[in-house]
Specification:
Elements: E1 2-9, H1 14-28, E2 32-39, E3 47-48, H2 53-71, H3 91-98, E4 102-105, E5 125-129, H4 166-178, E6 185-188, H5 191-199, E7 207-210, H6 225-232, E8 239-244, H7 256-263, E9 271-276, E10 291-293, H8 300-309, E11 312-315, H9 324-331, E12 336-339, E13 354-357, H10 362-374, H11 378-392, H12 395-410
Parallel strand pairs: 1-2, 1-4, 2-3, 4-5, 5-6, 6-7, 8-9, 8-11, 9-10, 11-12, 12-13
Helix pairs in contact: 1-12, 6-8, 7-10, 9-11
Length: about 400
Amino acid sequence: MKILIVNSSDMKGGAARAAYRLHKSLLDQKINSQMLVKNKISDDYTVISPGKRIHKIINDIRSYLDSIPANLYKNRAITSFSAPWFPFNNIVNKINNIKPDIVHLHWINDSMLRIEDIAKIKAPIVWTCHDDWVFTGGCHIKWECTKYKKSCGSCQNLGSNKDNDLSRKVFNRKQKTFSKIPSMRIIGLSRWLTNCASESSLLKNKEIINIPNPINTEQFKPFDKEQSRILWGFPKEKKLILFGAELAISDVNKGFKELSEALRKLKSQNIEFIIFGSSQPKKPYNFGFKTHYLGHLHDDISLVTLYSAVDVMIVPSLQEAFGQTASESMACGTPVVAFAHSGLLDIIEHEKSGYLAKPFNTDDLANGIDWVLNTKKYDELCKKAREKIIKVFDSKIVVHQYIKLYKQILN
């Protein structure tokens, strides 16, 4: 069985790290897996990319040209919108030349694949949704919009009031392309995302399956808290609150605004706040206690020691396809506070492995942080958090769900 994992990058971003972890899990199970990416960051020989400088230049040009249609909408929101249209991409040729038994698509935006090119892939396709893009007319986050259920149009993310706008055109392009791939399987990383995908008319005739992201719990495991704090230079006597994501402060979906409001309502004393995924801004935020800005972290060992050093992880996202930082933190025995919404509902059990606040109530978010920091059940919370991840999301469990699916397709 020869599997080809396709993602825009092998390391940059949550989707990339999830796809790479699946790739490595398949290799651990002696499955012949390769990963094809546009932007290769690792030196892993099992990951392949165009590689040559000329291809990188062409990709930059392609990204610029692909962004033009959406940028013509002057009132568009800052939420990501992708409408890949520029032809003459050699990625499909590379896929077909590898001759995999199954092509497993993940996050293929950033001008990696044109919509129409997907139908040119000769092998059976499995496609994991890492956000809403697969089943919408171009939006990566649909917010509360339900127009994707029919045909999109009048897109609020584009600031459009026209039915036949770019979102409708992208939707129609997808509909035409997907109709040519009748056996394509769609993966939703959470029950919430799986349900959203099933409601889209784009995928009404597709098999949609819920399989989560895998995590290696032999790597993501508790590390001595005192030693972790020494490594990071954090004080031993403080209660430490952690928040982090790609573009943690600037991405509105990651909930930094809501978290900022909650932090100012905390009753707990003797605390410090830690942020990863963003560097210190020109005008640092004042929460009434010290804040550490760690910038971008690029390796799992740093994450393990960081999760182990703190007392609580906050994931205040407005929407999460899964909630990878939550699963990482809990695997390291650190409870998580989040809003009771979207993919995080699959990971956190309220007052058992963390706290689920009312969406998007910053008073309750603050209550949740205070509760975790002060509960007498804290040690039990930590134990239950790790147990949940081992039981449901460990890579050995998740990879066998994928292998079973691959075998069903090939049979």
